Amino acid sequence: MNYLQWLAQETETTWWHDSADIAEQQQARAWGAVGMTTNPFLINNALHSDSALWASRVLLDPAQCEGDEKVLDLMRAVTGYFAEVFAKEGYVCAQTNPNKCGDYVYMLEQAKIYASWSPNIVIKLPATKAGIRVYEECVALGIPVAATVSFTVPQVLAVAEAAERGKDRARKAGIPKALSIAVLMVGRLDDYLRDVAQDQESVVTETDIRQAGTACMKRAYKLFTERGYDTKLMPAGSRGAYHIQALSGASMIMSIAPKIQKELIAVKEPFKAQIDEPVSEDVIERLLTLREFQRAYEVGGMVEEEFITYGSCNRTIDQFINDGWNPLLSFNFKGVSL
Question: Are 124 and 93 in contact (CB under 8 A)?
Answer without folding.
Answer: yes
